[in-house]
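Project outcomes to date are best conveyed with an example. Our students and postdoctoral researchers have been running inverse folding experiments weekly, and each run begins with a structure described purely in tokens. The record below, which covers 285 residues, was selected by the lab manager from last quarter's runs and is presented without edits.
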């Protein structure tokens, strides 16, 4: 036969409070076997959950802070990383800029530009992962022309870039670009590269010489002149002018004519800054 359940006798020194009355128990009462402490409910921190409002959306962040390249020390770290990858012939870096490179489809891409005694080096640097993804070398002795001026678009073009640019051409100027290369967006056989200031400078969001193409032009020109001087192809005359020998490069001013290939593609790509590493919400690229 089952034994009737008996209420246990109170233990001396123990509280008779029910669980619902624990809030009235002094915080000094402890359970010696575990060392746990019963804390007054006034001490228990409340967990607060907030829904993200407009202040936390990426679109509300000031535009310069959306770009990873402007995070503290990231640009300097990127330049240092690229220098460590260069060979001895490019060890003397004369200048470094963060510019916009514009390909033959008029697509803008964020590129780190380093200038050495022998090469202009265009670097695709992933500011999110902190790694070099692509290096492109433009040999100084093969550069035939520097063209600095405004961009010119056909009147029917849906996108236009109101800015100064620098077009660097190498090889023989009279050599035509093959049709298949002009229409292939991935072709690397177009013998020119065009640069403009970083998009933040062009939109007047900030002022920084390292992001401005105007600051790179004289340094690039000087590097080319110095190279040919050292190789005896350029000599200074008695009146201080330079005299070029042979088929060397030239510096010209004028309009950089943009072909009317696929304006809609450039419009979507450039207006969305798809070629730049920036914060875009849940996914960054």
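After processing, the design step wrote out the following sequence:
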């Amino acid at each position: 036969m089952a034994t009737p359940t008996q209420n246990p006798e109170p233990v001396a020194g123990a509280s008779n409070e029910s669980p619902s009355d624990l809030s009235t128990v002094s915080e000094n009462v402890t359970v010696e076997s575990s060392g746990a402490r019963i804390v007054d409910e006034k001490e228990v921190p409340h967990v607060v959950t907030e829904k993200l409002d407009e202040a936390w959306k990426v679109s509300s962040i000031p535009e310069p802070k959306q770009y990873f390249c402007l995070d503290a020390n990231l640009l300097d770290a990127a330049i240092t990383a690229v220098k460590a990858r260069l060979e001895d012939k490019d060890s003397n870096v004369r200048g470094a800029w963060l510019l916009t490179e514009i390909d033959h489809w008029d697509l803008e891409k964020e590129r780190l530009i380093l200038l050495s005694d022998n090469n202009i080096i265009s670097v695709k640097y992933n500011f999110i992962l902190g790694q070099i993804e692509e290096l492109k070398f433009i040999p100084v002795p093969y550069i035939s022309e520097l063209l600095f001026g405004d961009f010119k678009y056909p009147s029917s073009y849906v996108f236009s870039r109101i800015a100064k640019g620098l077009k660097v051409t190498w090889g023989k100027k009279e050599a035509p670009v093959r049709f298949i290369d002009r229409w292939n967006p991935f072709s690397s056989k177009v013998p020119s590269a065009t640069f403009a200031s970083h998009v933040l400078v062009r939109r007047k969001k900030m002022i920084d010489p390292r992001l401005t193409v105007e600051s790179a032009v004289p340094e690039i020109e000087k590097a080319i002149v110095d190279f040919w001087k050292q190789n005896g192809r350029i000599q200074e005359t008695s009146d201080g002018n330079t005299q070029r020998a042979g088929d060397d490069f030239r510096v010209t001013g004028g309009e950089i004519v943009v072909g009317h290939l696929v304006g809609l593609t450039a419009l979507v790509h450039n207006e969305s800054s798809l070629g730049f590493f920036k914060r875009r919400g849940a996914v960054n690229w």
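The chain has one domain: 55-235+244-271. The longest strand covers residues 93-102. The training component of this project remains on track.
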